[in-house]
Task: structure prediction
Amino acid sequence: MNNPLLNFEKFAPYSKIKPQDVLPALDSVLDQNRAKMQDLVKENQNYTWENFIEPMIALNNRLNQVWSPVRNLHSVADSEELREYYNQALPKLSEYSSGIGQNPDLYRAYQAVSQSAEFNQYSTAQQQTINNELRDFRLSGIHLPPEQQARYKEIQQQLSTLSSRFSENVLDATHAWKKNITDESLLTGLPENIKALLKQHAEQNGLSGWLITLDNPIYIPCLNYLDNRALREEIYTAFVSRASEHSRLANGEITAQWDNLPVMQQILALRHEKVQLLGFKNYAEYSLYTKMAKTPEQVVEFLLDLAQKARPLAEQELTELQAFAQQNAGLTQLELWDVPYFSEKLRLHNYALSQESLRPYFPLNKVLDGLFAVLQRLYQIQFKTLTDGSIETWHPEVKVIEITDKEGNLRGHLYLDVYARAGKRQGAWLDGCIDRHRTANGVQTPIGYIVCNFTPPLNNQPTLLTHGEVLTLFHEFGHGMHHLLTQIDYSPVAGISGVAWDAVELPSQLMENWCWEREALNLISGHYQTGEAIPEELYRKMIAAKNFQAGLFTLRQIEFALFDFRLHWQYQPDINVQQLLDGVRKEVSVLIPPAFNRFQNTFNHIFSGGYAAGYYSYKWAEVLSADAFSLFEEKGIFDAETGQRFLNTVLAKGGSQEAMDLFIEFRGRPPKIDALLRHLGMKN
Ligand code: ZN
Result:
């Protein structure tokens, strides 16, 4: 078959891939894999790692090789045509994996290997691989009677289709609203660079004037800076109504065509039914079965405890903000569309520091070079951006970066796609493309995608990042290093594969800490005109402002996490999602959004990402990352020995061992919350 998705060695031939290639390529691999699996079961009598597990891994890697570029394109270059084929492919994939998970012959073969005399001689990573597989069989309903297995399969298929629909509804609703401004006076307060972006946006859409959209690089500054309160309210209202029963269209009309409430209700019902089939009481228990946290009570207690510690600070921050808005604008009632605006003004007032004032010091290329220098000092690795075009990408803006270690060994590649574009999912992420794996032909080095949504360059000016965007870049490279610097030779537990979800944010959140250190800032900052690093005075302001509204921010994260967890823990068929969220807000929040706010309808993390009953992971892992960084604070932030230690204990080991064990190996003791509280200014 002359299908580009089936005919490449390592790097996908993006220029040749067409949406209509997706289904034939997938069908072909799935058929081949199914046939080969049957052979594997039949051919062998004594199952071993070599004659069974290794070939099974190879089949999975083959499927991943074909599917990963498609999944990536759906996230970064979505089109109507691709979406159609992608959505037809999802049920096929789901049927395939349920088919494996419920195949008694395969299960018996894995069991045989786990009970064989050789098992104890396998490495920890090999044993973990086999144990994970056996666990996943149980989680796929291997023990269920046939009718229940069939129902499980059906549920899985419906769930994958529904979560795809959820995120598409969000994307479509986001793009459906825009506002063309022709009266410049409405834009007072907006920084010039953002205005220029709005102008460029209008031009690209064949309009005069300025165009406001709900994409983050535009939405956030508009809420932060627009002096016009009515306009802020209008934008806020459109943003928080997305994918609800009152989603906004560009002409101001209201539509329910992307309403995600029915989608959420179906997803929740199906998740609940699925895990009950498997013998769990609820989805929260099922979620924790593969995580570092052990019981639902432990998670809720952790969140409520943190909420209690953050609350006094949050209340104080809100009182200050209200007083400030009243003093400066005579505002007696602070609305949600006023909060970012007056917060920015208050930050400026308290610290003489605006988000925008740091931009000139963070040209993208300088930040990247500095980031590479930081990582080089920590882990003795080298970065090289490949410019010869030998590796194809999906867009001219995408860079390919090669990483080698101090011995000159190739450790892997990263695709780096940083600019916001139409057809690209919002947010920032690292996704694994290929996992590290050793075969008879040598090591297959890993590849990852790092994707962000930064403001594209304007009028040939360099791209200038906010400090928040610098943090995002460091965060994603933290995931990237986890994925790339692994030394595990078995792809199912190499890099980020097989790592418990509530531990996976440890390496990423750890990296953010360097963005606040003077020594590191000297490497990553340089004024785009003068090359000067962040001046000392500005640095001091940055540090003073670091925990600006940390209490409010923490409570917001806890609100999301608690909502997600309770939704899955306390699920009942007649559950009222809005009521549950309102209840959580009443319990932990100090800022209550207006009744029309439908944040939950765009909560991609838990309805179309992997964070269901797992959003708490961010805060959970923040305890780990703050505590891990405290060792760097003790030994020196560029202490090579501590860097090596993190590399060897956490990054290199991937998912081959329990996250808690790896953490203890690095830190010399179990995690403590003290460092996090200190970093957030909640404790000295
Ligand atoms: Zn992350």
Notes: Residues 151 and 489 are 36 Å apart (CA to CA). Residues 475, 479, 505, 508 surround zinc ion (CB under 6 Å). The longest strand covers residues 410-419.
